[in-house]
Amino acid sequence: xWGVTLLLCGWLGAVEMQWGWFANPLLLLTLILLLxxxxxxxxxxxxxAVLVGLSTLSWYQHSIxxxxxxxxxxxxxxxxxxxxxxxxxxxxxxxxxxxxILAKREVEAKAAASRDSVVV
Length: 120
Prior knowledge:
Blueprint: H1 3-9, H2 23-36, H3 39-54, E1 64-65, E2 75-76, H4 83-119
Antiparallel strand pairs: 1-2
């Protein structure tokens, strides 16, 4: 299955109790929070995105309906994750990682600024 197809139609996985696609809107929210400078919120939303994204590993244990009919004869069995899956998962991990790095830098900058104002 192509990545673009999964991106556009993945929300339909909720019908089959497959929630992994919903990590994408959470990733978008993480990026928006990062741009707004709300690093703590970005970190926690990113962690939830990673956990939801990891739920896609269940696709390799349970087959997925291959069409809208849901016939047990037409099931899609995924054998192993491909390189694109790992890149996608890496993009999910990058959000909370960046949030923690940026939050640490912000705290260090504030501490340095307060030290400089006390010394003067």
